[in-house]
Amino acid sequence: MTRLLRIGSRLGLLATIAMITFVSGAGADEIRLPDMGSPADAVLSKSEEARFGRAIMAQIRASGAVIEDPVITEYINDVGSRIAAQSNDGTHKFTFFVIEDPRINAFALPGGYIGVHTGLIEATRNEDELAGVLAHEVAHVTQRHIARAIHANQRQGILTTALMLGALVAGVAGGSPDAFQAGVAVAQGTAAQSQINFTRSNEYEADRIGIGALYGAGFDPHGMASFFEVMSRQNPASPEMRAPEFLRTHPVTTARIAEARNRAQQYPRRMSTASVEYGISRARVIVARFDTAPEAVAYFEQRSYENQTQVERYGRALAYQRAGLHLEANRIFGELVEKDPRVIAYHIGLGETLLELELYAAGTDAFDRAVELFPRNVPLTISYGEFLLRLGQADKAHTLLLDLMNNVPPTPAQVRLIARAANEAGNSAESYYYLSEYELMTGNLVRGIRFLQEALQLPELQEIQRIRFEARIDFIRQYMSEEQLRQIQRNRTDRTSARNGG
Length: 502
Hints:
By secondary structure, the protein is mainly α. Helices cover 66% and strands 3% of the residues.
């Protein structure tokens, strides 16, 4: 069931992206005259940091490691955005995402991209602990620790720095430790590892800034130290045993735990009241973690139904749903909706199981009621769109999804869904356009232009669409290398030759 992230093999590609980003970005004048308030800009300006982060994120998405569960994605972004609002002066844009990896870890990338492993979500005991980890990673971004580390080692040269960052991303984003170590060795020898890890002062600073943001966002400021204590108890008893990934990338000492505790005590204590959404997201992670559906069912049947909490019952229904026991799952979802109709995930589960039970009219009514209660909610709209496509109502699905994506930035998976809806609705031109956007979001500019060129060949293409697609091609070409431009020309020549029969 679990697809472990395999980015280690992409090390060379990531390093190349890093080198291109540095070399093609800031000019010599910017390097000689940095922002006086931020010396790190001399090597990596904020705009370059954002571009670099987008390039890395495209590769991570293309690897298939990012969880595309809209319920989990929305939840992690809601919590992260609350924290970021407390520690951000408006100059940083944040994107939070979840990696399907059982190892306990989280990481910050340039440009405000914060990744969390599913293993970390499951390891947390409450929402405050999860928020504490996110607050720490947000602080790494706002304090520009990656750029500052590059600035501190700028004499190593642009190429070395690019290779080091490529190795760093391969390591923290879930690649094998061996690939990480090999990349570091290639960059500048074994000693380089200490230079690309966050320094001890960076870690303490991220703790300090993060705890303040944690309290400001309405969470218990003790949540960070609480999770540190959980992780410290997982230290291996012998050198031969591997420490959890979090401990290798975020070393936790008794002094650091004490410092976090003391700093948290400067704020009024808040009682932990974990949201239902936290429990739902964690339950979804747990259900997906098992290799087989019966294992997931057995896990949630350990306690009697009468003694289970609302969230545990939700997890039980999810496990039944995965096992194909849709009638049992539907009964639980129906009961949950009746008890707490404010929880969107319950409505989604009810609608999905009605579909599987072929109760199409009841399922449509359930989704329509939910959409009326929660208009333009991303997980609900995506689930309803998939439901409508199963029913063959592609026009309605396309309209529903288009309204959402005109108001909420979509993920690549969501763009592919609307491309499917447009195609099944008979709108080939728009389908090609959406597929082009998907390729751009995952970093494949050549394929992105190819889909637009395919759209331009459609006989039913409208003039307004032709103008829009050609303008989009011109825009994309500005960001392409000479080799990519040549490849586009070769592709065009090959297609022309094929149409002419030879």
